[in-house]
């Protein structure tokens, strides 16, 4: 397996308070997100209001579902809107859209289902959440040979958006390292 | 009804989909397994004990093809009996693991089973050996089977050196429960075997007594 880059950012902004994580074929995912970003900004101009997170997720879902034969891309859409506050949606490969409090995706996710199930609790603070996500990514990167490099995290709140980048050597270490 | 197709489970290979785990603590080992045996999409046995004794204080955990795994365990059980009579004392865990490894390696193209061997002996205390595909390696803990993929992150995060017996048992139960929740080929009840110098203890934890997590 060839590693073409170790620093790709797979967390893309599609609107002020809405971000998408890409998984699967990154080429397909990039193409879909580009289309979705355009449709979303047009939608937001028409509504004269920032788009709802579910609107962003639905746009992605429509694209994935209608082109399911050609595409191999899945997304996690997360953000904040005025109506429902913070939300997380996942659009799977075939175009299913569901809302979940916590969700994982990508090849490395299989290794951390157990960890997330055990450690996630609702209503964590921002710091607890960041630590939880960083730990989960570090564990997955430690076991999945095609995940690695740098961890990109984005914290989205009503007030704004903050990027946290954790290089591989600063990630938390566990017993066998 | 004309020409009903035979049920899928009659033509599918029987696999112990499985989650198995063994962990060493100061003075012994704990082995754990789920109890589901599947043939294709059917569960053909929901209460199978996949922790098989090789000797009084040496057990192995079975995964992969049910027939292959059981056969290896039975062969090694016999070979270990003969060996222990020849040396006149209880066999070492490493000997049992080596016998398993020899079969797994020699027939690696034909067999598709992975056995984790764990036990206690007077010389080295509690030991866990993994024998995947004919490799022999001693590890502080080992996980195996289809369900193990889902809990690598959990065991990496939670394992600590120097855990006591009760902590290890709880660690095994938690790990099995998490894996059984996510893996379609693992489920049923959890079997536990604890081996130390005083003896061997077998336990079953029924479905509703298993720990639950945030989304249950």
UniProtKB/TrEMBL annotation, chain A:
The proteasome is a multicatalytic proteinase complex which is characterized by its ability to cleave peptides with Arg, Phe, Tyr, Leu, and Glu adjacent to the leaving group at neutral or slightly basic pH. The proteasome has an ATP-dependent proteolytic activity. This subunit is involved in antigen processing to generate class I binding peptides. The keyword Repeat does not apply. It is found in: Nucleus. Its EC number is 3.4.25.1. It catalyses: Cleavage of peptide bonds with very broad specificity. GO terms for cellular component: proteasome complex. It holds the Pfam family Proteasome. This is proteasome endopeptidase complex. SUPFAM superfamilies: N-terminal nucleophile aminohydrolases (Ntn hydrolases). InterPro entries: Ntn_hydrolases_N, Pept_T1A_subB, Proteasome_sua/b, Proteasome_suB-type. Coiled coil: none annotated. It comes from the Eukaryota. Keywords: Cytoplasm, Hydrolase, Protease, Proteasome, Threonine protease. The keyword Lipid biosynthesis does not apply. Its main location: nucleus.
From TrEMBL, chain B:
It comes from the Eukaryota. CDD domains: proteasome_beta_type_6 (cd03762). PROSITE patterns: PROTEASOME_BETA_1, PROTEASOME_BETA_2. Signal peptide: none annotated. Its main location: cytoplasm. Transmembrane segments: none annotated. Gene3D superfamilies: Glutamine Phosphoribosylpyrophosphate, subunit 1, domain 1. GO terms for cellular component: proteasome complex. Component of the proteasome, a multicatalytic proteinase complex which is characterized by its ability to cleave peptides with Arg, Phe, Tyr, Leu, and Glu adjacent to the leaving group at neutral or slightly basic pH. The proteasome has an ATP-dependent proteolytic activity. The proteasome is a multicatalytic proteinase complex which is characterized by its ability to cleave peptides with Arg, Phe, Tyr, Leu, and Glu adjacent to the leaving group at neutral or slightly basic pH. The proteasome has an ATP-dependent proteolytic activity. This subunit is involved in antigen processing to generate class I binding peptides. PANTHER family: METALLOPROTEASE TLDD, PROTEASOME SUBUNIT BETA. Belongs to the peptidase T1B family. Component of the proteasome complex. This is Proteasome subunit beta.
């Amino acid at each position: 397996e060839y590693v073409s880059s170790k620093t790709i950012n797979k967390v893309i902004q599609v609107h002020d308070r809405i971000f998408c994580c890409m998984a699967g074929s990154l080429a397909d995912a990039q193409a879909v997100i580009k289309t979705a970003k355009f449709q979303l900004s047009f939608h937001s101009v028409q509504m004269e209001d920032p788009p709802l997170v579910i609107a962003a997720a639905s746009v992605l879902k429509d694209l994935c579902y209608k082109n399911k034969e050609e595409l191999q891309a899945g997304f996690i859409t997360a953000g904040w809107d005025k109506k429902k506050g913070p939300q997380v949606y996942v659009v799977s490969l075939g175009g299913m859209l569901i809302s979940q409090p916590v969700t994982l995706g990508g090849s490395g996710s299989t290794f951390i289902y157990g960890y997330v199930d055990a450690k996630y609790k609702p209503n964590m603070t921002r710091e607890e959440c960041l630590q939880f996500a960083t730990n989960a990514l570090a564990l997955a990167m430690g076991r999945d040979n095609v995940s690695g490099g740098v961890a990109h995290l984005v914290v989205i709140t009503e007030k704004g958006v903050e990027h946290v980048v954790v290089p591989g050597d600063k990630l938390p270490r566990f017993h066998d390292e | 009804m004309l020409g009903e197709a035979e049920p899928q489970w009659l033509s599918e290979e029987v696999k112990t989909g499985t989650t198995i785990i063994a962990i060493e603590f100061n003075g012994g080992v704990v082995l754990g397994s789920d109890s589901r045996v599947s043939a294709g999409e059917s569960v053909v046995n929901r209460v199978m004990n996949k922790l098989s004794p090789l000797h009084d204080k040496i057990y192995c955990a079975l995964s992969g093809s049910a027939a292959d795994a059981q056969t290896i365990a039975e062969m090694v059980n016999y070979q270990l009996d003969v060996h222990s009579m020849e040396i006149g004392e209880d066999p070492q865990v490493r000997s049992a693991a080596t016998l398993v490894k020899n079969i797994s390696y020699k027939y690696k193209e034909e067999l598709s089973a992975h056995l984790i061997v764990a036990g206690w002996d007077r010389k080295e205390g509690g030991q866990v050996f993994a024998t995947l595909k004919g490799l022999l390696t001693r590890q502080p803990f080992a996980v195996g089977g289809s369900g193990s993929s889902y809990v690598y992150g959990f065991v990496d995060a939670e394992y600590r050196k120097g855990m006591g017996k009760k902590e290890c048992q709880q660690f095994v139960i938690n790990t099995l429960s998490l894996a059984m929740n996510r893996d379609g080929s693992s489920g049923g009840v959890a079997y536990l075997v604890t081996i130390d110098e005083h003896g061997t203890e077998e336990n079953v934890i029924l479905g509703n007594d298993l720990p639950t997590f945030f989304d249950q």
